[in-house]
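Case study 2.
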Amino acid sequence: MTDWQREWPAPAKINLFLHVVGRRDDGYHLLQTVFRFLDHGDVLRFEPRSDGRIVLANPLPGVPPETDLTVRAAEALRAASGVTAGATLHLDKRLPMGGGLGGGSSDAATVLIALNRLWGCGLDSVRLQQIGLSLGADVPIFIHGHAAFAEGVGECFTDVAPPPAWYLVLVPPVAVPTADIFRSPALRRDTPAMAAPDWKPGVGHNDLEPVACALFPSVAEHLAWLKSFGDARMSGSGACCFVDFREESAARAALAALPAGMRGFVARGLDQHPLLMP
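Prediction:
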């Protein structure tokens, strides 16, 4: 099987904590968080094209192809590398939109990593992260490829190694607009910063969680149910929530006990992205 025939994974991420520690003059929020990948996510395939076009084979409902992060990532890579090749992108979308699991960002990162190899662009991880940051603040972590304590707008990384864990992730039936959470006057923006070495598993909280719960009661409902199993938290700006287990069997038993009307999945925490670049 050639690289053009293979499937390229785009894993989910969760935020083990997420603090808003300030705001820059340009309006961007300063964050501290720990990113961890999950062995669950979207999948992409690519076909070469001879006409030099970038085509998304299966556009997402309500998302014009030219604004889709996968297409934008391919176009950004061509602009940065000078390559003129084309490709058809096939996206198997398994992660919810507006779920706080980084689906669109992960898709964009996988496009950059895959087409960098398929087109022979020869760009290194640092350059791909720079391109990724122009697309969205969460894109660089998927190219960095390690579980990490992140700072700045989310692009400065210190690698960490959280303990092995299985996660039950619940998917409330809402798509949370990240911009609505960050523009809320109720959002706390002055959580004291911590040094990366001071972070330990269980430390911290998600500053975005109270705002999301107030705007979307179903997020609060799902969190409340999860909290019976431990220190449940919301990921990113929501809507998805998670709780960790030491054993897969315990996580799957909790999933089997989900009330009617709730849905979710079990996934193992990963400390390295499956497409980790050298």
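The chain has a mean pLDDT of 96.
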